[in-house]
Structure formats: C-alpha cells, structure tokens
Amino acid sequence: MPSLAKSNLSAIRAQAELHHQYLLGLELMVATREGADVVGDWMFRLFRAQHEEKFLSSFRKLGLDGLPDAVACARYHVLSNNMGGVGVEYMEESDTKAWVRFRYPRWMYAGPAICGVPVEASRGFLKGWYAQNGVSLGNPRLGFVCVSEDMTGQYGLCGYFREFDHDLSDDERLQFQPDETPPPYDPSAQPAPPPGEWNEERLAKANRNYAMEYIRNGVRELSAVLGRERTLELGCLAARLTGLQQYRAMAEAVGAVDGGPAEAANFLSAMFSGMGDSCDLDRTDAGVHITQSGLRIARGLSGAERETLLTCWIELWRGATHSHRAFMEAETDIQNDAIKWSIRPQ
Fold first, then answer.
1. What is the model's pLDDT at position 174?
2. Is 289 helix (H, G, I), strand (E, B) or coil?
3. CA distance linking residue 141 with residue 164, whole number of Å
4. Could you tell me the end-to-end alpha-carbon distance of the chain, in angstroms, rounded to an integer?
5. DSSP type of residue 94
6. What confidence score (pLDDT) does residue 262 get?
7. Per-residue pLDDT at 69
8. Handedness of CA 126, 127, 131, 135 (dihedral sign)
9. CA geometry: angle at 314 spanning 309 and 319, to 5°?
10. Sign of the torsion formed by the C-alpha atoms of 137, 122, 28 and 105
11. Which is nearest to 92 in space by CA: 193, 185, 209?
12. What is the pLDDT of residue 6?
C-alpha cells in the first residue's frame, strides 16, 4: 500500500492533469462551436485576468525584485511556467532584451489537439498577458516581440521581451518579427526558484493550482463573452466529456477500481483529497452519500460566479462516474460550504 503522503501527492497531480485537460477541451469546444474570433476574445480576457491576479504578486516569491524589467519578465515566464509543468527556456541577450522559448509538446495544446486550435487563441493570450507586462511594471518602453507561433508550423511559441528606446503605443506592445531567431540555449543560464522553498509537494500543488486557476477564471470570462446560459451549455458538456475520458488515468493514479457506488465514492473521495477537500461517506443499501467540504475550486467566489463554476465543475465527476462499467447516477446538491453527492445504481 502506498503511504498516505504519496497517495495524496498522486491525487494532487491527477487533479492538475484533469483541470489541464478540461481547459483544453473547453477551448476546443468554444473554437469549434463559436469560431476563431470568439475563442481569441475569450483567451484575451482569460489571460488578462490571470495577469492582473498573479503577475506582480509573484515577482517576490520568485526572487525577481531588482532585476531589469526585460530580464525579470523573461525569467518570470520561465519559472512560473516550469512550475506549472510547462517547458520554457530562457536566453538573455542583454539587460534590455531577454528571450523565452516554449518547447514541445505544448502544455496548452496536448497531442494532436493543437491542430484544432486557431491562431487567434494564441494571439489572444499574447495580447492579454505578454503585451501587458510593461503596463503593469510602469515601464512604457517594455514590449514583447513574437518571432514564432504554435499554430503556424514554425518551432513553437518564441519571442523576447525588449525595452525599446521610446514609449510604446498600445499597438506596439505586441509585435511580430518572424524572421528573427533566438540565441543558442545555455543550460547553465536557466533561472531557478529561490532555494529551499519548492519541495516536491509544493511544486505539485503549484502545478495543480496553475491548472485550476485557468478553470476558475476561464469559466467566469467565458460567461462575459458568451453569456451564462451558453457558458453552462458548453462548460458542462466539455466537463462531462473530460471526466469520461480521464477517469481511467485518474483511477490508476489514486488506486481506484472500476465497480459500483461504493467504489465510485471511494474514487471521488481519493480525488477530492487532491484538492485539499474533505469527504464524509455514508453508505446505505440504496447507495453512498458523500458530503464534500472545503471546495477549493470555489474558494473566494460567491453568487452567480460560484454557482456557474460549480455547476460546470460537477460534470467532471459525473463524467468520471459514468465512465465506470456499472451504470450509476451521481446526484448533487450545492450548498453554502459543501456539495452533497448521492451515488446510486441507475
């Protein structure tokens, strides 16, 4: 039997992968149902929200205070992405010009799914986050120059932060120069997080939170683009499909078995521990009742935003339950501080 600590670490990692796959599935669903311009607008709003929430507050945690702005920005994106499981490399030319290159396979577009994502999605997040760095840092001369993109068949997302010799207009903060190439990669020059602060468990939780925040903010920003009803329609369907697809991988991660309501309840309890949530199980002849409390996915949210997110999120677990060989129903009751689950035979 694996130790409790190791089992919980596996659940944390499984939650990170689940939320990652849900983000990708929802992005593909919006792209195919609503079109390239809509998914581009959504990605812009999502990454601008992520930027405003995380960018400046993370600088000190990553030990970047006091560095030149272009260097600090490039190192920030390497460190934060690598901690979230995204492979990014760093190449510094000078205090005013520093490169980032995302390596394949791309975290955001796992496997062949990259073929179904329009370039507008990538440009939306470049404009939403990368073009905003100089504004957030109070440096009107700082911009980002993109030299290679994911969907254009070049060599992956790549570009550099540069401090120009003049203040940039809104349109100049994001530029495209596809004829430029980065300097050689130097493994000894790669930034590292402050020593002694990022053990295995903390990195796993950072990875989970990285993926989870995209869903928390993504559902909210999708509602701003499509309205609540359409967001619920697409968000719930994408979640259900993701849960169906991911059940086997999650079950293997937490040592769950394919069975009836008792086994499904044990699976849910193990997975919810990977969110830091707690579960009380009540087994009856009719099925199993679970009280899930903590609800990390909805912490700090209220009102319609909380209800919309939880309504979509629950479908991940309905999908996982329906992926079992036995046919079961998973009914839920969203309360102020908990979700009540009822798992019973169909």
1. 98
2. strand
3. 5
4. 32
5. E
6. 95
7. 96
8. negative
9. 135
10. negative
11. 185
12. 66
Strands 328-334 and 338-345 come out as antiparallel
Distance CA 94, CA 211 (A): 32
Nearest one of 217, 232, 231, 215 to 311, comparing CA atoms: 232
CA distance 56 to 74: 14
Residue carrying structure tokens 């798992």: 343
Tokens of 64: 């970047």
Place of tokens 């949210």: 301
Q: Distance between CA atoms of 70 and 89, rounded to whole angstroms?
A: 15
Q: Which two tokens stand for residue 96?
A: 């005013």
The length of the chain, given as a count of residues: 346
Measured distance CA(220)–CA(237) in Å, rounded: 16
> Measured between alpha carbons, how far is residue 82 from residues 43, 53, 77, 107, 190 in Å?
20, 19, 8, 10, 11
Closest to 250 measured CA to CA, from 273, 278, 233: 273
- Cis ω on the peptide bond leading into residue 112 (within 30° of 0)? no
CA dihedral sign, ordered 212, 100, 201, 65: negative
Question: Mean pLDDT in runs of 10 for the chain (346 residues)?
Answer: 66 96 96 97 96 86 90 94 86 97 88 92 96 96 97 93 97 95 95 78 89 96 98 98 97 96 96 96 91 96 97 98 96 94 95
Contact indicator for 338, 323 with CB cutoff of 8 Å: no
Residue 84 parent element (H or E) = none
- Which of 140, 136, 175 lies closest to 159 in space, CA to CA? 175
Helices in 129-281 by DSSP H: which ranges? 133-137, 200-226, 228-254, 261-273
Q: How far apart are CA 17 and CA 204, in angstroms?
A: 11
